[in-house]
Amino acid sequence: MFQVMPGVQRFVLGPLVTWLRRWSVPCALAMTVVMVAVMVVALSLLLGAGMLMAQQVIALAKELPTHRHNIRQKLRDLRPALVPSGTTLELARVFGMVEGEIAAAQKQLRLDTQSEPELTRVAVDTDAVSSLPLQVLNTVAYRWPAPA
Asked: Could you give the C-alpha distances from 3 to 14, 56, 86, in angstroms and in order?
């Protein structure tokens, strides 16, 4: 961007500087006069745009009570459409029921994840237990086909 600006300045402002040089104005003074003139024009445009915007804001401020009245009137006109009918009441009831079910499920999930399973230690008296189930397990394990 900055590399393009000198070329644009020379292309746009060069003829003005050349015109001033023909009138026997020194080069530095001609460039200074042209740059000051460009700055004055740019500031005038910005000032004009600012004044235009200020006028628009002032006009909007003057019309604001009218706009406020129009908005209130439109809301009053919408009020009958916002009154719940039988269908909307039924939908609200169903959504409330679904929301309650979801909340209950979330609560149950929170309870399930917070509590760790309790371990129960069982003491096995090997003297009182017959060894038949162990023999069956050993036999099944021994005869079970080995994976290929």
From this structure: 17, 38, 70
Query: CA–CA separation, 115 vs 98, rounded Å?
Result: 26
Residue 14 near residue 6 (C-beta atoms within 8 A):
no
Supply 130's token pair. Answer: 């017959």
Look at the block and give the residue holding tokens 């024009």.
Answer: 41
Instruction: Work out the number of other CB atoms within 10 angstroms of the CB of residue 21.
Output: 14
CA distance 55 to 8: 34
Residue-wise pLDDT for 7-27, tens only, equals 767 777 888 888 888 888 888
- Determine the 3-state secondary structure of 81 from DSSP: helix
Backbone φ, ψ for residue 19 (5° rounding): -60, -45
Provide the token pair at 32. Answer: 């200074």
- Tell me if the pTM is above 0.85: no
Q: Determine the pLDDT at residue 53.
A: 96
The helix (H) or strand (E) run that includes residue 6 is helix 5-22
